[in-house]
Amino acid sequence: MFSTPLIRARHPELSKLVQPLKDAILEHKRAQAGIKRSNFGGWHSELGMDRWAGEPAQMLVSMTSSILEDQLDVQQMDGTHMRPGWAVDMWANVNRAGDANAQHCHPGSFASAVFYVDMGASGGEPKDGHFVVEDPRYPMAHMQHPNVLWKGASGAGAESQVAIMPEAGELIIFPSWLRHAVRPHSGLGERISIAMNLTLMWQAPGGAR
């Protein structure tokens, strides 16, 4: 009951975007100092990546919105046929070994997404640097006794946090209210990801908003 949606998408067309997006991010990183948000260390670009990274970034936005829409139940009101359009904020993150992102959410948006360009393992399999999501009901699961938990869908005690190890070329989409974080990694390379916020902009069938 009361499930929380989280989409994990892999597709050959997403994989094709990895190298051109990596090249655009590293080139931009050399020219820009970056900003501070949820990141502890690392480099966080300014918004507007769909502009400064060109066509590959715009293709990623298009694919992300399409995947998201496939998972929505759009209920029409007053017989008016509208379809969701999206205003998108987009930026890049580059974390070296030991860098992390604090637990946070993205107020003001409908959905958020992260696309993984490089996991920073530098040739090996990544063993850390997980993307972590928090049960929005936390700390309710631990209110009376932290070691006595309701069973979850798997039959084990319900977890207050779930750690996900993505792979390069993977896209994760989730509600913007879902608190999430990024754990430090210990790889020799740079962990590169792209984040997006998608805000609903209703539009009529002909495209007028």
Describe the structure.
It is a single chain. The chain is α+β, with helices and mostly antiparallel strands. The protein has one domain: q2cbj1_9rhob like domain (Jelly Rolls). The protein is 19% helix and 30% strand. The protein is built from 4 helices and 11 strands, in the order E-H-H-E-E-H-H-E-E-E-E-E-E-E-E. It is globular and about 50 Å long.
SSE order, one letter for each helix or strand: EHHEEHHEEEEEEEE
**Rg from Cα:** 18 Å
- Total strands: the figure is 11
CATH class: Mainly Beta
Q: What is the typical, i.e. mean, pLDDT? A: 91
Give me the number of helical elements. Answer: 4
Helix amount: 10-25%
- The CATH topology label is Jelly Rolls
Shape: globular
Report the major sheet: 6 strands, antiparallel
Biggest sheet: strand arrangement:
1-9-6-11-4-3
Low-confidence stretches: none
Secondary structure blueprint with pairings:
Elements: E1 7-9, H1 12-15, H2 18-31, E2 39-40, E3 43-44, H3 49-52, H4 54-70, E4 83-95, E5 100-104, E6 111-119, E7 131-134, E8 161-164, E9 171-175, E10 180-182, E11 191-203
Antiparallel strand pairs: 1-9, 2-5, 3-4, 4-11, 5-10, 6-9, 6-11, 7-8, 7-10
